[in-house]
Amino acid sequence: MKEVKISKLQYGLLVFTFFFGSTLIYNPAESTKTDAWITMLLGTIGGLVLITVFLYIAKLNNGKTLTEILDNCFGKVFGKVISIYYIIFYLYKSSLNTRLFVGFMNSVSFTETPVIVIFIVLSIGTLYSARGGLTVIGKTSEILAPILLLSSLIVSTSIFTIKDFTSFTPILLEIAPVIKSAVNLLSTVFGDIFIFLLIIPYTNSKKGLFKTTYWVTFIFFLIVESSILRNIIVVGPLMGTLTYTSHVSAQLIPTINIEPIIDISLLIGVGFKIVICLYAVSKITADIFKLEEYKPILTAFAVLNIALGYIILPKNADVFIDWTKSYGQDFIAFLPDLFFPLLMLVISIFKNRKKTQDVCA
C-alpha cells in the first residue's frame, strides 16, 4: 500500500478537518464560560507540544507507520498489544464523534427523524469514503476542506456584527477549571494527532511537514478562538450551561442566519474525523494480521461504530456531554495521547543515536 501517495496539501487539509471534528458541537474550553478564550489559548499551546512530539516521532521513524513504530520500539509482542489498544481507542473516538453529531442533528435539525436513521446515513457516507482509500480521502479533502474553512470563517467572523464587549469580565476568577478544561481540550482535539502516524508515511514529500502542521494548527486556533469570542459576546456567562452553545448564539445574532453554515461545517468536520478513525482501526488491524488490504474489514468496524454509538454511549445529550468533560475522558486518552508517544519518542531517539554511533564505529 505504500505506493499510495497523498500531497502535502492534502495532508494539511486532513489535519485541519480532523482537528475541527465536532468542535462546534462540543468545545471543552466553553465549560470555563467567559474564560473560554484563555482555555483555548492554553490548550493550543499544550497541543503544539504534542504536535512537536508527533512530528519528531515521524521524522525519527521515517517511512514507518504507527504499527511499525510500536513494533520497533516495544518489540513484536508488546507492540501488538499496544496496537490493539489504539484500535479500541480510535474506535471509541469514532463512536464518540458519531454520537455527538447524531445527537446534535436529532435535537436541532431533524427532530422527527429516528436517531438510528441518522446513524445509518452518516455511517454509509463515511464507509463509502473510507473504502475509496487514502488517495480518495485526500482528494475529497481538497474539495470539502475549503468549504469547511470558508463556512468556519463566516461563522467566526459573525462576531464583527456585534458591538458589546462587556461579557469578557471578570477574567480568571478560578484557575483550576481553566487548567482542567485545557487538559480536556488536549485529550479531545490535539492529542489525537498521533493517528496521522498512519498517514504521514504515504505523503509524497516529507519536506516542510513541520511547517504545514504548525500552520494548520494556527489557522484552526484562530477560527475556533474567534467562534469562542463570538459565543462569549452573545451568550456571556450562560456558556458552559448550554448544551449547544454555538447553535444558540447563532440564533441570537441579529440580521444573519448562520445555522445552516454550522450544519455544513459539522457534517464535513465530523465526517472526516470518522473516516480517518475508521481507516486507522482497519489499517492497524490489517497490519497486525498481515492482511494485504484493510478494506475487507472496514465494513465490520463501521457496523461496530454504529453499535457503540447507538447502544452503549449515553443517549441523553446533557449526560453524554458531561461524560466528555469528565476526568474519565482524560484518563482514557492519557496512554495513547501522551504516555505511549513520549515513550516512542525517547526510545526512537536512543535507537537513532545508537545507530549513528554504530555507523561511526
TrEMBL record:
Signal sequence, renumbered to the chain: none
Organism taxonomic ancestry: Bacteria, Bacillati, Bacillota, Clostridia, Eubacteriales
NCBIfam families, A to Z: 2A0309
Subcellular compartments: Membrane
Coiled-coil regions listed in the entry: none
Family under the similarity heading: Belongs to the amino acid-polyamine-organocation (APC) superfamily. Spore germination protein (SGP) (TC 2.A.3.9) family.
One example of a Gene Ontology biological process annotation: spore germination
GO CC annotations on file: membrane
Protein source organism: Ruminiclostridium cellulolyticum (strain ATCC 35319 / DSM 5812 / JCM 6584 / H10) (Clostridium cellulolyticum)
Membrane topology of this protein: Multi-pass membrane protein
Stated name of the protein: Spore germination protein
Family matches, as Pfam families: Spore_permease (PF03845)
InterPro entries: Spore_GerAB
Keywords of the record: Germination, Membrane, Transmembrane, Transmembrane helix, Transport
Transmembrane intervals: 12-29, 35-57, 77-93, 113-131, 143-162, 182-202, 214-240, 260-282, 294-313, 333-350
Entry superkingdom: Bacteria
